[in-house]
Design brief:
This protein is α/β, with parallel strands linked by helices. Helices cover 34% and strands 17% of the residues. Strands 4-12-11-10-7-5-6 form a seven-stranded mixed beta sheet, sandwiched between helices. The protein has a four-stranded mixed beta sheet with strand order 1-2-3-15. α11 (336-347) runs parallel beside α13 (410-423).
Length: 431
């Protein structure tokens, strides 16, 4: 390894703070020099099949000529302009697409910077909605345990209070109301008593609840749990019964990942507010969107403030909107349903290790494959083993999972699966 590479990595470890890492005991950071298709190339020469789609966003693979071309064209016209008082074609086209493709009734679009900000926007919409109705006491959020909605403060307040990675900030964050997490798996036989405890929380607290927020069908970073669609259907019915807005956080599940274009479709519901992000631009640039119904938008707009009180500097960035338009075109052109079905079929092979002594559970839904282990893995050690096998997989805690790019071939996906099966049988990867 050359001296510059060594110096750069040393500088990185001393000065650059990576997500969820320690500056005194940093995890190894592998230096990427290029990426193409489903592979990222390290400066040390390895080419790794990316099983994470860069945290679930690079659904069309890296360096895609269609998205590249769209961004090249846009940067020659206007890369950024303020969205206050101005608009542009990429934003208009994107919002038209989002309204057309999301569940019926969501016809107002607020463009934001990131998934966490989209959740912040949704929460502010809900609070301002009830304030505009003259019911300011409905100012709390309700959710279920086991969820994850982002790392900014309002988003943290509705993450799992025990395992949501944000316990340190308890007492400073707004206090949300938590119901028990859904326990029935996606394919299990439905039990109507599953939502009894949920309804009890609604009944006891609805007069103070502005909105109920949930990740549809898949609880992502909070545990990669897949729950029954009828539970989500009941969430919609309970929100209607108790006069509470429903916020669906589809930042991780949106744009086909679960086998439906949006996970809400598994339950045939429309939320009052919908949060989107991650795959929106195909992983090229950070961009998110919060959609809401006409009722939500009109109520806020006719309230005391007369406007929605939020406005990011980079809202509606033309370059990001152009990338998103190209990504959404690819989604249709590449027949995402066929891609997801093929990935889901291949991922079933993970279940062959379900009975291994180290494994607690294996679950598959759409283009998501999860192996839950009985004890936590050592991230540095397990990643080193994956790199040796030519794959990039980033586990956390007891969860080793993959959410690959939609364009992945059967052969490359099998290499990811085989690597998981091989590494999880080692004795030296555990904490």
């Amino acid at each position: 390894m050359n001296k510059k590479h060594t110096d750069d990595i040393r500088f990185d470890q001393l000065h650059i703070w990576h997500p969820y890492t320690s500056m005194t005991q940093p995890l190894p950071a592998y230096k990427v020099v290029s990426a193409e298709g489903v592979r990222i190339e390290l400066e040390s020469g390895e080419k790794l099949i990316d099983g994470m789609a860069s945290w679930w966003s690079v659904v069309h693979g890296y360096n895609h000529e269609v998205i590249n071309h769209a961004m090249h064209q846009q940067i020659d016209q206007v890369s950024h302009v303020m969205f206050g008082g101005l608009t542009h074609q990429p934003a208009i086209d994107l919002c038209r697409r989002l309204i057309d493709m999301t569940p019926a009734g969501l016809d107002k679009v607020f463009l934001a910077d990131s998934g966490s900000v989209a959740v912040e926007v949704a929460i502010k919409m809900a609070i301002q909605y009830w304030h505009s109705k003259g019911n300011a006491k409905k100012n709390k959020l309700m959710t279920v345990q086991g969820g994850y909605h982002g790392d900014t403060f309002a988003a943290m307040s509705v993450c799992d209070p025990v395992n949501g990675m944000h316990q340190l900030f308890q007492g400073f964050m707004a206090q949300a109301i938590f119901a028990p997490k859904p326990t029935l798996g996606f394919d299990q036989l439905w039990d109507a008593t599953q939502t009894d405890a949920l309804e009890q929380v609604f009944a006891e607290n609805h007069q103070h609840i502005a909105a109920f927020i949930i990740e549809p069908i898949v609880q992502g970073a909070g545990g990669m749990h897949f729950y029954h669609p009828k539970y989500l259907k009941q969430c919609r019915l309970l929100c209607d019964k108790y006069n509470v807005l429903l916020i669906a956080d589809e930042i991780a599940t949106g744009f086909g990942r679960t086998g439906k274009l949006f996970a809400c479709e598994h339950a045939h519901i429309t939320p009052d507010i919908l949060c989107l992000g991650k795959a929106l631009t195909g992983g090229y640039l950070t961009l998110a969107a919060t959609l809401c119904t006409k009722d939500v938008a009109d109520t806020i707009s006719n309230g005391e403030a007369g406007v929605f009180m939020h406005g990011p500097t980079f809202m509606g960035n033309p370059l990001a909107c152009s990338a998103a338009n190209a990504s959404l075109s690819l989604l249709a052109d590449n027949h995402w349903q066929t891609q997801i079905a093929a990935i889901e079929d291949s991922l079933q092979d993970l279940k062959s290790i379900a009975n291994h002594e180290n494994i607690a559970d294996v679950r598959v839904l759409g283009a998501i494959g999860v192996v839950e282990t009985k004890r936590a893995v050592d991230t540095a050690k397990i990643q080193a083993q994956f790199v040796k096998l030519g794959v990039w997989i980033r586990p956390f805690g007891k969860l080793v999972y993959i959410m690959p790019p939609y364009i992945i071939s059967h052969a490359d996906l099998q290499l990811l699966i085989d690597a998981i099966k091989q590494v999880l049988q080692r004795d030296d990867i555990w904490r």
